[in-house]
Design brief:
- The protein has two helices and six strands, in the order E-E-H-E-E-E-E-H.
- The chain has a six-stranded antiparallel β-barrel.
- It starts with 9 loop residues before the first strand and ends with a helix.
- Strand 4 and strand 5 form a beta hairpin.
- By secondary structure, it is α+β, with helices and mostly antiparallel strands.
- Its main location: secreted.
- Belongs to the peptidase S1 family. CLIP subfamily.
Amino acid sequence: QDEPIEDGTCLQVSGWGKTEDEDYGSEDLRLINIPVVNWEKCRKRFRKIHYLTKQMICAGSEHISACHGDSGGPLVDGRKLVGVASWAYPYVCVGYPVVFAKVSSVRSWIKFVSDV
């Protein structure tokens, strides 16, 4: 069942992506907590560079976010996989949210393909 996640809810994202002071990504797997961003606000923020669909969820803040190199990484709420890092504003790691593919939108396809 797809239960909506409230705006501002902090979720966890992990990856080896870039950090503020590293140009090529981290050698260590990192974990951060980032807030869910209102979908409509996120859509407006990206409207000039990419189309946002309801199969996407945005998370991040002005000060902390996933970054380049984190694509494909998980966005989790406790033990539940909520999203998979998909794309972000080009060449910017903070100040814009990151867009994640919403797992609940493709759950039936995952079950069909994986036979789980």
